[in-house]
């Protein structure tokens, strides 16, 4: 057996990733993310439990390994959760307004609606306060100029377990509205080797996380439930 072959599969995938082009790495990430997502939602039930569990762990552990060196001390993938210092009440109110005004332009993406490139959100995503905040915690980052308003505002909307594209490697996800007060839909993160993390963001609160490395989902909305979020993408360098 070669030396590489004696390493755990996760480490070998990490090593393989280091040899890949950016496009190849995205391809491998998609494969692993589809595998983790599929296994989490109960696919491959015909396979033995043990094998499914091992495959899921391998995919979940390997995803952050694809970015070794750029994912310092990865545990849950969460960098920050709560009210950030970089958004004022006025910033949140302005994005809330723009989100509502942009709803008619939103396009369906799988099981939710997305409006991209609204001017205020794009400008906000370039703020040096955000950049400084992120850089202090994860090292230097670059904004990807991606800013999306997200809408889960009809019954049955949500998104199955997945990881984000490279453009949202480090995702600043901020809650603008979730009504009614009695919430059903939630955000769930599935970090490797840990219990799932269930998150409900209050108005104006943000989750900053490595969305390209930790599998996550939004569970389905029920009748009368409506959620609006804004998402900014950053890239560790
Ligand atoms: Fe996502």
Task: Characterise the protein shown here.
The protein is α+β, with helices and mostly antiparallel strands. The protein folds into 2 domains: 4-65; 78-236, q2cbj1_9rhob like domain (Jelly Rolls). It has 6 helices and 11 strands. It has helices at residues 9-18, 22-40, 49-65, 89-102, 119-125, 128-138, and strands spanning 78-82, 107-109, 112-116, 141-152, 159-162, 170-179, 187-190, 197-199, 206-210, 215-218, 226-236. A hairpin with a 2-residue loop joins β2 (107-109) and β3 (112-116). The protein is globular and about 55 Å long. The two termini are 36 Å apart. The structure holds fe (ii) ion (FE2). Fe (ii) ion (FE2) is lined by residues 162, 164, 211, 216.
Question: What topology does this entry show?
Answer:
Elements lengths: L8 H10 L3 H19 L8 H17 L12 E5 L6 H14 L4 E3 L2 E5 L2 H7 L2 H11 L2 E12 L6 E4 L7 E10 L7 E4 L6 E3 L6 E5 L4 E4 L7 E11 L1
Antiparallel strand pairs: 1-9, 2-3, 3-4, 4-11, 5-10, 6-9, 6-11, 7-8, 7-10
Helix pairs in contact: 1-3, 2-3
